[in-house]
Amino acid sequence: MYPLVKHKHTILNTSLAYCCRLIDQCFSLKSSKNVTVLHALLVKVGFNRYTFLGNRCLDLYCRSGSSAVDVLKVFDDIALRNVVSWNICLKGLLNFGHIEMACSLFDEMPERDVVSWNSMIVGHASCGHVDRALERFRRMQISGVQPSEYTYSILMSVVFATLGGRELHGSLIRRGFSTSNVVLGNSLIDMYGKLGLLDYSVGVFLGMKNKDIISWNSLIICFCKCGHGELALHWFWLMRSLGHSVDAFTFSAIINCCSDLRKLNKGEQSLALCMKLGFLCNSLVSSASIDLFSKCNRFGDSVKLFQELEHWDSAVCNSMISCYARHHFAEAALLLFVLTLREDIRPTEYTFSSLLSVIHSFPVEQGTQIHCLVIRLGFDSDAIVASSLVDMYSKFGFVNCAVEIFSRMTAKDLTCWNTLILGLTHNNMVYEALDTFKELLQSGPRPDRITFCAVLLACTYGGFVDVGLTLFSSMIDDYGIPPSNEHFACLVNLLFKAGRFDEAVELIKEIPYEPDCLVWESLLDACAIGDLNLIEGMVERLMEVMPDPSMAYQLLTRIYEMQGKWESLVRLKNTMRSLVKPVVGFSWIGMKNQIYVFDAKQLGQPGGKDVYCTMRLLTWEMEDEAVTSRSTMIDSI
Predict the structure, then answer these.
(1) What is the dihedral of CA 142, 147, 150, 155, to 10 degrees?
(2) Of 107, 250, 376, 497, which is most buried with the most CB atoms under 10 A?
(3) pTM value?
(4) DSSP 323-386
(5) What are the protein's UniProt keywords (predicted)?
(6) How is the chain split into domains, by residue range?
(7) Alpha-carbon torsion 253, 254, 258, 264, what sign?
């Protein structure tokens, strides 16, 4: 960079070309201080009013992270503004997040080209305003401006409706763009993959004359997202057989696919190939490998791989926090989160989602602290984090807080609705849960099987038999959702609680597959008072399908107690002592950011004996104070 201060006396006599060279070197530094000094010199000699130099200075302010006020001042100083001046200022306002100000500037533009329209479409899409982005695209075509390939690639990345995606594809063809174009073809594959239209993705891929590594990766990821992991592995093998090169994104997708399929053997083979090709140090591959071991119940390998990494970033830390959460190591997940903050690793929405899923194991103060951090970092508007907050407060029993967070959400996906309905149901607010379901049908996305599980459970808790039967029929007939064991279990329990024993038995007989433990458990729990031989037969069936027989034994124990079969109860308890491991209950207390765990036998922390001695002394003091106060009261009487 030319020393600007040194050239203050010469810039008065210099040419425009010299100023351009100074501006070019300011671009490489991206320093707001140098930009301000250079701008002051241009103002001093009057060059700031020249269109070309003014545009360059305006672009400098936009890229250097200056404020929107500075950008508008430079823009106002340009005497003859052309379309480039307007576009740079528009892009700068959008980068600073001033979407409404950018809209006003866009309306004032005397001339708009494809860059102007693309900037507005990107601005709306980045803020999550998909409808406004599509409306800008419609107005763009009405105004006679020809969309570019970049326009279509932007829109295809934000379309989440099947009809909208097909319309974009048709418009692209009508405009004369070839789907064999690599950029457009890759965008179409990705779009149809997100929409779940796997056949369309394959059709676009096969119709492309030129394919790059992004094309193959997009198709493999599409197979994984649509739940066809075996096809993804087959296409990966085909990609390798045809001699195409692979990268870290390819291996990340394949390892994630093996994780979803729970195929540890193939995942380890892919990991060995990663090590051979030198991709293991990539954070995407490392995080996918941690997820693979975690989901395949190889927790120790996940920890070992994480500890061997030389560099941590948000991807690998998120995977490890999720691993701790999945295996119920809540305290380890929280400690790792604190460590990432100390290492200046910025958390993402997935970090908070994993952490909030286990924070209910701690006192509620820990959850509120995480919530405050979410608000401070600006993640409270994210749908994933908001859903996790709704779930956390529901588990704590603070349903009003969960409802308030849900009501403030601007974009509510199906996960948010399902989380709130389940939270209301588990807190015995069944009327509110059903009202929320009605609101979902009116203004929300299409319900899925989890939604119907939640509302059928609410009907079971509330004893709404007719409503539950109607919803069960509607799920099959109106929404085409095949009932699973969870749905049958809720309906069986609902019918039994209403005394409709014969209908429940007939329903079990109509299940098109072998009922699992949920159905038999519901049946056994509902008919606790009945024919003992029938109940014992159901317990045998339940033990056949349950990996852990403790639940079946506990149910039968309760039934023996209710029916007064004391001899059978004694024999059953003797059997349980030899077969079933006892479940030790525990409680915890938080003191000075430290969690102390008490189980049924001892204190699970160092210094437990001292704590118990202190508690015993406090108990004695309380008893002495109680005796003294009682004596004083008697004397006064």
Answers:
(1) 40
(2) 250
(3) 0.68
(4) HHHHTT-HHHHHHHHHHHHHTT----HHHHHHHHTTGGGS-HHHHHHHHHHHHHTT-TT-HHHH
(5) Repeat
(6) 1-111, 587-636
(7) negative
